[in-house]
Design goal:
Pfam families: NTP_transf_3
CATH topology: Spore Coat Polysaccharide Biosynthesis Protein SpsA, Chain A
Largest sheet: 8 strands, mixed
Structural class: alpha/beta
Radius of gyration: 18 Å
CATH architecture: Alpha-Beta Complex
Number of helices: 11
Keywords: Magnesium, Membrane, Transmembrane, Transmembrane helix
Strand content: 15-25%
Helix content: 25-40%
Protein name: Nucleotidyltransferase family protein
Number of domains: 1
Length: about 260
């Protein structure tokens, strides 16, 4: 049996005001209540419930404030560490110096389940960089009201599911590159264009599937990159907008928690 994989939860705040926090009484998104508990609690609980996950580290600009939350303090084996301002730089600094794999997720990935984690890790084997994504028809079949950012490729439109598997130092060049284009994370074509004109043309003309495109982008940095399609529509529903929280709480109520 494969040894449990360590996990990193990115729980920092992006620059600028966050409309989700208006009138909430909390200072950081990770502590925003969803279904009666801080969103980060839901994520850590799902990670802790998975037998595939080992040590958990939460990264945030003010990790002490997050660790002081009583529900989070109850997770005695979770480590809290301060991050920098940039997601990519903070994550790169937290990766192991060898090629050991790390599971990465975010504090707003509140619908995460152990089943999702298992499906993703099974699909991510033997890759240097793996990214979980949901195809549009999978989401719309269950939640047609959910609005996501889509990357359009031959054979489907895809949205990120906030799960990543990175093999330590091998992923650092790609993270350094991501740090330079991070501000355009919601603008799919700008991200694709940053990998070069050949990839952009292939996507615009629908010549490439997302699997081919990501593999080609990875080769530019000497890594084996892979997309892992997720079967659960909920995998790409994160707490990004007020309407997301309404939907998430409805889904949680249907789950019985």
């Amino acid at each position: 049996m494969t040894a449990p994989i360590p996990a990193i939860v990115m729980a920092g705040s992006r620059p600028g005001p966050d409309p989700l926090l208006d009138g909430s009484g909390v200072a950081t998104k990770a502590l925003l209540p969803i279904a009666g508990e801080a969103m980060l609690v839901h994520v850590v609980r799902a990670l802790r419930a998975s037998p595939r996950v080992g040590a958990i580290t939460v990264l945030a600009q003010n990790s002490r404030a997050i660790a002081a939350d009583p529900a989070l303090a109850a997770f005695e084996d979770v480590r809290f560490a301060d991050s920098g301002q940039g997601i990519s730089a903070s994550l790169a600094a937290a990766l192991p110096d060898d090629d050991a794999p790390v599971l990465v997720t975010t504090a707003d990935n509140v619908l995460l389940t152990p089943a999702m984690i298992g499906e993703f890790l099974d699909g991510a084997e033997d890759s240097d960089v793996a990214v979980a994504m949901v195809e549009r028809t999978v989401l719309l079949a269950r939640y047609p009201e959910s609005r996501r950012t889509w990357l359009k490729f031959r054979g489907g439109w895809w949205s990120g599911a906030n799960l990543f598997r990175l093999r330590g130092r091998r992923a650092r060049p790609l993270l350094d590159f991501w740090g330079r284009i991070e501000r355009d994370r919601k603008k799919g074509l700008r991200i694709i264009a940053a990998f070069g004109p050949a990839l952009l043309i292939g996507v615009l003309l629908r010549l490439l599937t997302i699997h081919q495109g990501v593999a080609r982008a990875g080769r530019r940095f000497g890594v084996k990159a892979r997309i892992v399609p997720m079967s659960a529509a909920e995998a790409c529903i994160d707490a990004d907008k007020p309407e997301d929280i309404v939907l998430i709480e409805r889904i949680m109520a249907g789950r019985g928690f």
